[in-house]
Every structure is written in structure tokens, then in C-alpha cells.
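Morning run. Coffee first, then this:
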Amino acid sequence: MRATSSVIVGRDSEIGLLGRALDGAARGSGSAVFLVGEAGIGKSRLAGECAFRAYGLDMPVLRGRATSTGLVVPFRPLAEALSSRFRAAGTPDDAELLPYRPALASLVPEWRGGAAPGFPDSLIELAEALLRLLSVLGRERGCVILLEDLHDADTETVAVVEYLVDNVAGLPVLLVATLRPDPGPALDLAHAAELRGTAAARELGPLGDEAVRDMIAACLETGRGEVPQAAHRLLSERAGGNPYVLEVLLADLLDTGRLGRTDEGWRLAERFDPTVPTGIVRSWARRLARLDEPVRTLLLTAATLGGRFSVSVLKDVTGFDDRSLFAHLRSASEAGIITPDGAAYDQYTFRHVLTAEALRATLPPAEQAALARQAAEVLEGPGEAGRELSDEARQLVAALRLAAGDEAAAARQLELVGRHMLAAGAAGSAVVLLERARKLAAEDGRDAVTVSLAVAQAQSGQLDTARALLDDLAPVSAGSPAAEARAEALVEVAWVATMAEQREEALSLTRAARALLGPAPLPVHEAALAVVEGHLTLLPGHAGREDPTEAERSRTREDLAETERSARRAALIAEEHRTPVVACRAWQLLALLSRERGFGEADACLERMLAVSEEHRLPVWRAEALVRLGANAFMRTGEAARLETARSAARELGSLALLQHIDGMLAMQAVLGGRWERATEIVEQSVEASVRVRNHAAHRYLLLVRATSAAHQGRSRERDQALTRLRRAGGEESMLVPLQRGLCQAMGALMEEDRERALAELDASLAWERAHPSFFYLSGRYGLRPLLRVLSGADDRAAYRETLASPGAALAWNRVFLGMADAVLLGREKDRAGALRAVRATGEAARAFPQAWHLALRLTAEAALADGWGEPVAWLRTAEEYFYGAGVQPVAAACRAALRQAGVTVSQRRGGRERIPAGLREVGVTPREHEVFVLLAERPGNQEIARRLHISPRTVEKHLASLLAKTGRADRAALCALSAESAG
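And here it is:
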């Protein structure tokens, strides 16, 4: 007889918490709840109650459970949760999910596009994609994702859950997770999230005495006053307030007839047999004894296989034919012991994990070991010789071998699975498996496992742990096979350190690898080392001093030349020995180094990288090659067609990191093209998401784009805010410094008509580039700076020719300024016709960059006026019209002032009222007064306002007096505060 409660008792507080969380999700205010407690305490009952209430509110519910068999299956509960929804409702087809489908392909079979399922390149990318999916599912009424037994989840799943917990606020999503209070990553996550205030964690204690009585009454379907006192006392003592144990013991009392209903109500037998079970194990032994022998055999075998088991595996181990097997499964299911697993058609699970544990405990240890050994031999036996075991099957075999006492055999299976997961990109799960294998391995095989574990630790972000593992290994002879394997691991760890810009650590690792390989390493090992060491030469700090001498710069050039030669040898060797990842790393490095000789050669390297990645089916490296090819094309021509192609490849790959990197470049292209609204749109879509996925490089670049866009529009307050965020994000230690100083701050100074500060910023950018190897050419060194120096008389034709010889001079943006520098020099050389032709040719090439063109006109016109050539008045009028329309008033005012100095009548601008906020228009603020008002947000003095607007300080005073009267502000400070508020 089954004895289960149809209601939840003693959990009113938790039910109230879940109810409020459901209401919040329905309103778009998401949250996360962790239910923590021992096995059987009622966590799943509460999760089920939450699901029931969500169904009642017509909210989508996604429910998954981690495997309780000890198997490490990356993302198992997440995949099951999505399947539980999509199996019935189908996959969503919302357009906004298209960029995230590839990242979710490992969880959603329908989105794999025929490709073999793999692991995503970044867990955070997967987590962000899952967050977007849940947001879409919950858009109308909210949605719920229930993840049970999180303590059994793989480390990748725990990492994804942590991301969801930290970012679910403000979204229509409720996340509920259940877990035991066992030490581990899941419990650490629950406690940390509660401390951060990003989740509620409730630990479920045992039921109190009255709650136990209520539960007994619910199980017996009677009033609580009808529960026999003796039965209440007995079950309270033996169940310890655990609802599941209480139900099992109550069922045993009912099955044995010691508790029964009489005419006078429920009665417990007064005398007890001395063999009465004193715990759940004895209770299950008694229940098993009442089952048919084949059903007992099936259940004991299934329990040996774990809390969840495969029908096909169970058939192989028991030897039952299909008809008998399913008959016995049906009997066990009807008895309430097992139940079909809704996540997979051929899976069953025990109704509770304690059931499997209790059943195994009914067997003597020797019999348990014999049954486990038999099951392992069947799985590994001759019948399976032609079939490669899956990762799950190997882990099951390892568990069975361990139960049979064969630790070495278990270690071998775990090591194989760990290495496979490492190769597939599931570094966190690889760490768990390889750590288990290392503990179990025989002494002669432990070092090999440790080497693999070190690589897994590095790839999961634990560089210090990886290094410590390798350092603790026993010494080996240089050049031996063991030394070569260890050196390969050191190189892989060094690559991770290089990509993390941990230069000193990476150098130390490469030196250790060389020591192990000996004086004459194999070519393939030398190639892998050369590539890592080559990338290290490009990190900030390689050249040493901030102000290197000419001799030091010469040595740096020699070092880079040798680096390029080594990288080229490495690329050819890697291709010959079929180590394609090393080859791609080498061609990527060569593409950067060869830019010094022109972008054609750099593109040839990238095309080779693309070919290698496609030949060896390396989608991540293929996308990387396309991105770099697109970036080069953009810099040469200003066109973004190849960048869009690269974006499509990154989207198909599901790489959010690459997508954000490409979006940053597309946004910068929009800034340079004067399409500032488009740039803002791209940045706002990606800048915060890049923080969430910890894509720090893309985040810094997007912040730089935001600052550059503001600088190019003359919005100094917005520029400074973005630069402050960039500094906090580590921008001052990154390769972005030249762009920040030259493309952003120098251009911003010119938009404020401060040419001296612009040159100072460009000089600072050049000094940084001279101290650090740099292969990025939009910093002003090859365009804007030469023009300003030619205008000031600091550079002559010889300096211009030197700049023109650099590959950076071929870039479309730089050609705008270099073309005008040539025109200015020709004008000074009295070649007036040549100067005019140079201006017109530059204008034809500058169509993609309207702001750069009009700024160049404004700067060049003054030289043309002074030297008597060209059409300076027309150029100033054109530039004034452009900058006035763009709202960059200091440059527009400077153009009008230059026209007046040229003796040209300039009509007063009275337009611009459309840019005045409605509140200020209503009180009569004029366009000129509004220009003064906007500048007040930065709290400048009257002299500064006058200089920037090219008006007199006396006129500024008049405008300020008028603004105070019209706005009703008491003083200048209040007027400045109003301006800042309006700008914000």
C-alpha cells in the first residue's frame, strides 16, 4: 500500500516566498530562490508546488534535474529543462533569438543545424544566450526555470546558474534550484548569492511534531485527531521529521498490517516483533521481500546502476528479454518505487534518491561488489567491442569498477572522459573528472593524469593551481617522453596566461617548457613555443621603458623581425605536422607583424589562417580569421562589407564574444562615418552585455567607441564619463591607449577648437606607441598629427614623405588628413594648381568620412587664405554649415570668425531653435543663449566660454544675465546645475 501526502505541510513560509517570487516574475521583476535541505526533506515537493502554481498562471515552466548517478554530464539539467518545455510547445522562433541559437545548440537539438553537438566556447556566452531565451519565453506572463538536485550538477551548469542568478533581476524570470547542504560549488553559490542579495536561500529543516501529525493525517486521509498517538510517536522518532522517510515507514506499517483501520478508527498493533525495522534500510528490505524474485533482481541491479538508469543497459546486465523486462519495470513502477524519466524515452528513475541508496544497502558488501563487477564486465565485454563507449557509459563503468574495488580501472575510464571533455571545451567538467582519476590512479599513472589536470585547470581560469600542479611533479629527464608531455602542458598553460595578458607568468612557463625539452626540441614543440613567445612580444611592457632610447627601439625592431621569422617557421612546421591550432595561432601573429609592410601581406596571412581553420574544421579560428580580414578591409577602405560577413560567421558559431568585438568595430566605423546615432545604437546593445559575459576586451573597446562618439560631437561631458569608465575597466593598461589619446581625445580637443591640446594628445599617443610594439594605425600618427604639424610649420615635405611610406598612410581615414597636408605643402611651394587638385582628390576619397573631411577643410582653409591658393571661403562656408548642423558649435563659430577675418560678410545664425528643449523655448531662450547654456554643464569660466564660441566675454555676461532672468535661477551655480541636469 502506498502512503503519500497529497498536501504540503509545515512549509507555509517557503510557499509564501515562492508565491511572491512568481508574482514578481509575472510583473517583470525576476528573482532566484535556492531550497536547501537533506534528501527527502521536501525540496522537490516545493518545486512541484511552484510549478503547479505557475501552470495555473499560464506561465511557461522549464524543469530539469541533475543526474544523481555521479556522472559528469555538462549542462544536463539545463538541456532537460529546455526539452521539458520545447517537447510540447516547440522551440520559439523569435527573431531576436537568432544570434543566440548557435550558443544554445548544445542544449537544444533543433538548433544544431546538422552539426555535431559540442560545448560552447564560453560558458558566459551560453549563460547570456539562455538568459535571453528565458526573457523571450517570459515576455508575456513571466516564466519559471526549476533546476533540481543542483548539488549533483556539473561545474559548467553551476557557472551558468550563477550568471543567471546575478542577472535575472529586472527580467520576467523566476529561477528555483534545489540542493542538499553538502559542501561544494552549488552550496557555495547559494550562500554567496544570498550574501550578495541576488537570491533567497532557504534551508529546510525537519518537520515539527505537529507538522508530522498533519502529514500522517494527510497520508491516511483522515483527521489529525484520528491519528493514533502511538503511531505518531513511533514515526516522529524514526523519521526524524523527514517527510520522505516518514512516508516510507508509514507504508511499511500499512503493508505489514501493524497499522490498520478498525471500526473504531486507525489503530497501531500493541506488540512488536523484535525484528521490527529500526530504519529505512530495514523497511526497504522488508518491502523487497514481498516482491517477486525477478522484480527484486531488476531493482537491485537498477540501484547498482544509480538513481537514474537506462533501460537498454539494464537489459544487457540482467539478461531479461524485452517482454519480461518491461513487465518487471511496470510492476516496480506500480509499487511506487521507480518512475519513467520524462527527460529521455529509455530512462527510468527511482522515486527518490534515498530509495536507490537504501536498496543497495540491503545487500552485503561482497554481493554489492560482485553485482557491480558483473555490470561493468557486461558494459565492457565482447558484445561492446565494436562500439566506442560514450562518456556517460565510461563514467558508469568507472563507478561500477570503483564499487567493485578496482580503483585503477575506474581511474583509467575517468581519465579518458576527462581528456575528451577537455578537448571539447568543457574544462570545468574535465577538472572534476581528472581530479577523481588522479586520486584513484595507480602511482605509475598519476603523473600523466596530473599533466592533463593542469591544462584543464588553466583553461577553466585557475592558472595558479595549474602551475602548482606542474611544479609539484617529480623531476623527469629532459627530452624524455614524460618531459615532452609535461612541456606540451606548460605551453598550453602559457598560451592561456598570454591571452590573459599575464606576461611574466607566461614567460616563466615557456622557460620551464624549454628546460624540459632540452637543447634540441622537436620541430613541432619548437613551433608551439615560438608562437606563444611571439604573442608575448606584443603585450604592453615588452619594450620596457616608457621613453626608450634609439638603441632600445632598434633592438625592439630586431626582436620583432626575429619573432616574425620564428612565427613563419612555426606556421609551416605546424601545418606539416598537422597541429592546426598552432598553425592558426602562428598565422594570426604573422598577420599583425606583417602590417609593417602593408595590409596586402597581412591579408595573405589571414587567408592562410582561414584555409587551415576550414580544412581542419576549427570554427572558432575560422571566425577569428574572418574578423581580422574584415577589420583590415574596413581600415583600408572604410567599408564594412567583410565585417558583416565576419559577423554572420560569428553568429553561426554562437560566439557572443566575437559578436561583441565585431559590433565594436562596426560602431567605430559608424563614428568615423559620422553616423553617431547608429554607433550609439550598437554600443548600447552590447556594452552592458559585454560586462555580463566578462568580455573585458570588447567592453573596453565599446566604452572607447562611446567616448570617441561623444568627442567627435563635441560632447566633452559624455566623453569624460565614458573615459572614466574605460579607465576603471583597465583601459590605461591596454593596447587601446593610442586610440584613446589620438582618435578620441585629440579629436575632442579639435571639436573644442583647442589645437594645442590636440597636438599634445597626439604626441602622447606617439610616445606610447614608441614604447610598445603597436600595429594599429588609426591613432593619428599617420594622418591627423602630420596635418596639424604641417599647419604649424613643424613638419616639412621630408617628414610628410616619411609618413607616406608607412602602411598606415594607406588607410582611408588617414588619407583624408594626409591628402590635405600634401595640399598645404604644395600651396606653400607655390604650386597652387597642384594644391587645389590635391584637395579635390582628397574630397573624392573622403566621402565615407564626412566629419573628417569637413574638419580638414576647416583646418586647411586658414593655410589657403594665408598662402593665397584654393577656395578657402567656400571651404569655410561648407565646414560651418556641416558643424552647425551637427551641433558642434565651437567649430562652426570658428569658421564664422575665420570668414569675418577674411573680410566676408557672415549672416547671423538664428536657426537651431529645434535643438532647444521645450521648457527653455517656452521662456524665450535664444539659440545663442542656448549655446552658452549647454557649455555651463562643465562649469567653465566666462573667458573659456568666449573662446569656445568665438564671442567676447562681455557678450557671455549678457547671455548669462538673460538666462538667469528667463529661467528664474538665483545664481550661476543653480544655472550650471540646471544645464547639467538637462544634459543628463
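The domain at 12-203 is CATH 3.40.50.300 (Rossmann fold). Good start to the day.
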